[in-house]
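To illustrate the input format used throughout this study, we show a single complete record. The first block contains the structure-token representation of the backbone; no residue identities are included at this stage. The design step must infer an amino acid for every position from geometry alone.
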């Protein structure tokens, strides 16, 4: 029952908060057998909710901080270990590592974050040796282990109803040269893990270059089939000078005017402005009505993040920790109240409006930006389209 609870609850948290979770290269996941997943850590404990959608049979190695209270245990499950900066006695870690080894020996799937903690910064944090040690030990015991890297990439990690991609990397080579010492095996496994995680992640020299690449990568996905991750990898190699110049020209013209942006990209209608406006007039009120009917969970989640989040990588976590429980209380109360006092047809209306608002929220935000800019800043449309074409041209270059 516990496993079922966490599967359903994590699915709800991930699906309510994020617009879409896309799994890239799902064919690389082993269908069965002992598997060690090494995962990049970006957005706090929320990463676990998202990764669980991609690796439903995975058991996570988590910090003891996430198992301290009854409330926390409602959200988080896994094998708990004390990290270096945790208050708990690290002597319990030996038992936790034994549990990891037994899980792999029993053909289970273990998910480890080698960075130990999360960051939304321009580059990954240093990788620790724990995952490599577990892998080497399992292989020494004759376990036919698969080691698979995972990357996670959010369009806007803290934003409500943003998109996220999980990337499955190529399984690592788990064979070693004959006669290699135990220490040599450990170092070689860690080297292979580091290299594999570099391939499913992106690294930039500064926050400025990271933010610029994220903006251009998002622009590359607009109206195309480009994956956000693939676009990030292109701009990880650098941004062509001509594209940078075009972007600076647009930014200079945006700075003095009230042009709206979605994820730091100014959007304009690619077709008829009238058609965009009519669509917004139809679905916009649905989102507004759905939000108005669910103000308590939305507001409490927002206030909790404002009050408790000290970094961007825990904003989504605080919104989920507070907003989801409030929503789970609010939603049935509204259904029952509407049914008893207004008629059950109104309870159905409430449910439909709530679900439709969640589904349409992302599209309405983009439509609002495009329609506003199309109405008041049509003179910038050509420049924005030229910039978009330059982005797509960069994507097509080898």
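Output of the design step:
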């Amino acid at each position: 029952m516990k496993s079922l609870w966490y599967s359903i609850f994590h699915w709800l948290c991930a699906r309510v908060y994020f617009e879409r979770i896309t799994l890239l290269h799902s064919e690389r996941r082993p269908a069965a057998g002992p598997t060690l997943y090494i995962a990049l850590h970006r957005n706090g404990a929320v990463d676990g909710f998202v990764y669980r959608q991609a690796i439903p049979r995975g058991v996570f190695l988590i910090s003891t901080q996430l198992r301290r209270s009854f409330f926390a245990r409602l959200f988080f499950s896994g094998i708990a270990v004390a990290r270096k900066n945790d208050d708990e006695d690290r002597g319990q870690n030996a038992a936790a590592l034994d549990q990891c080894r037994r899980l792999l020996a029993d053909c289970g799937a273990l998910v480890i974050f080698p960075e130990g903690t999360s960051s939304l910064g321009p580059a990954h944090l240093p990788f620790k040796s724990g995952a490599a040690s577990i892998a080497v030990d399992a292989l020494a015991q004759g376990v036919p282990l698969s080691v698979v890297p995972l990357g996670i990439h959010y369009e806007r990690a803290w934003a409500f109803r943003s998109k996220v991609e999980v990337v499955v990397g190529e399984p690592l080579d788990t064979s070693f040269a004959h006669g290699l010492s135990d220490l040599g095996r450990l170092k070689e496994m860690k080297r292979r893990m580091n290299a594999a995680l570099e391939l499913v992640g992106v690294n930039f020299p500064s926050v400025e270059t990271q933010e610029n690449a994220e903006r251009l990568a998002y622009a590359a996905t607009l109206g195309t089939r480009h994956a956000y991750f693939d676009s990030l990898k292109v701009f990880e190699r650098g941004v062509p000078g001509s594209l940078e110049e075009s972007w600076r020209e647009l930014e200079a013209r945006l700075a003095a005017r009230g042009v709206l942006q979605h994820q730091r990209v100014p959007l304009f209608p690619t077709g008829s402005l009238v058609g965009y406006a009519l669509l917004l007039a139809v679905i916009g009120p649905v989102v507004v009505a759905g939000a108005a009917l669910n103000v308590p969970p939305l507001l409490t989640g927002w206030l909790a993040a404002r009050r408790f989040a000290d970094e961007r990588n825990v904003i989504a976590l605080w919104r989920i920790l507070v907003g989801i429980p409030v929503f789970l209380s609010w939603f049935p109360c509204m259904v029952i109240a509407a049914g008893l006092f207004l008629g059950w047809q109104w309870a159905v209306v409430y449910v439909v409006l709530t679900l439709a608002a969640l589904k349409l929220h992302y599209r309405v935000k983009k439509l609002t930006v495009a329609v506003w800019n199309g109405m008041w800043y049509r003179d910038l449309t050509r420049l924005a389209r030229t910039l978009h074409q330059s982005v797509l041209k960069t994507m097509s270059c080898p």
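Structural context for interpreting the output: The longest strand covers residues 146-154. The mean pLDDT is 93.
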